[in-house]
Amino acid sequence: MAAVLYPLAKVSSTRPPRVLFVAERLTDAFVRRIKQLSFLEVDCLKFCYLDVNGASALYFDLVERLQRAPGPKSED
Questions:
Q1: For residues 48 and 57, what is the distance between their CA atoms, to the nearest angstrom?
Q2: pTM surpassing 0.85?
Q3: Which of 18, 20, 21, 54 gets the most CB atoms within 10 Å of its CB?
Q4: 75 CB neighbour count, 10 Å cutoff
Q5: Is the dihedral of CA 64, 71, 29, 43 positive or negative?
Q6: Beta bridge partners of 55
């Protein structure tokens, strides 16, 4: 799907795309729910809106990286 939408994107089969959650504030309840998902890796980012000398920008800061050890591979 990514190859169709973004033909120049390089997708690694050894490191698949990660899920990013961007929020102004991460509550403990939100982090608990994210940990219940079956993703191998989730990056939780905090964003800040900046306005410096009339120039607007967004700043992203990694708050927490949730990593789950890969489970055993099933051989069907």
A1: 8
A2: no
A3: 21
A4: 4
A5: positive
A6: 52
Distance CA 41, CA 4 (A): 24
Q: How far apart are CA 39 and CA 47, in angstroms?
A: 22
Report the DSSP beta bridge partners of residue 56: 51
Q: What is the mean pLDDT of residues 11-34?
A: 76
Tokens at 57, concatenated: 């920008």
Cβ-based burial of 4 (10 A; exposed 0-12, middle 13-18, buried ≥19): exposed
Q: Which amino acid is at 41?
A: E
Nearest to 3 by CA among 21, 17, 15: 17
> 56: part of which helix (H) or strand (E)?
strand 55-67
